[in-house]
Amino acid sequence: GGNRRVFNRLGGSSAASPDSSKNQKVCYHWRAGKCSRFPCPFLHRELPHPSGPAAATSNGSGAPKRFADDSGFSGPALRRGPNFNNNHNNSWGRMGANKVVRKTEKVCNYWVQGNCSYGDKCRFLHSWSLGECFTLLNHLDGHQKVVTGIALPAGMDKLYTGSKDETVRAWDTNTGQCMGVINLGGEVGCMISEGPWLFVGIPNVVKAWNTQTNQELSLSGPVGQVYTMVVGNDLLFAGTQDGTILAWKFNAVTNNFEPAASLKGHTLAVVSLVVGANRLYSGSMDHSIKAWSLETLQCLQTLTEHTSVVMSLLCWEQFLLSCSLDQTIKVWVATESGNLEVTYTHKEE
Question: In which ranges do the WD repeats occur (predicted)?
């Protein structure tokens, strides 16, 4: 009856039954943190990893094991946030015995701030992700304002974060403890790492630290805030508030970064940069995307299909993806002439 099904679901042993194979499957909805069936005929726990040939299909569904299972982000039990009751009898998605809370796909603002009073009964998500691909490992608390940059330099056991509170913090990746705070005297607009170098953009300057030698440099030239940076073709590019893209090249003789170029064309701030296919792509508050040759640093094409700020760019195989505040994501592909054209537009309602 119902009690036996609940007992089996929680991992209790029982004699084989005609539907025992069904009972040995992990509930997909439980993995997503929103199973509303009670009792549920499927397992609300992860199956132990078998040994031998069967291990190749150890995700509990009989299907080949997915890449996410080996990514290091997945764990035996999912944690969904500060109000998630991480046990097998949780009432996620349920309200009382029969009332089901239907979750929207929006994150609860109160949960983000750590003070949602509805708990499991909240109709908004208490999770940063849907599905089982990611698990919350830790909260790094310390910044007083928005975090605008995160970087993990190669070979380091420290994570660096920059914020509008005008500080950079270093965190121990093993313990999650803050190891140090650097006061910069200006809001951090962006942060990246390349090799041992950590680059931090603040108003009117780019700060550079060599995390291996502790060498510190200040790269002058930016006018206003530095919103985005990227490295390509041995050049460091920075997109600035006045619409200029500045480039520096490292000189091994002087052990310094020297100005290499100033790319002009945008009429408002440059807020996104990406390198791909021997080109530099820049997205701006002027709603345009520009493609620049990494060899000549000349503008090759201007894309004007977006109607608001181009916040993010991504090169993926032969495609360029762009995300804008006009609530669209556009996929661009190169034509025979080499110019980019929109091949797909996703509209976020």
Answer: 140-181, 263-302
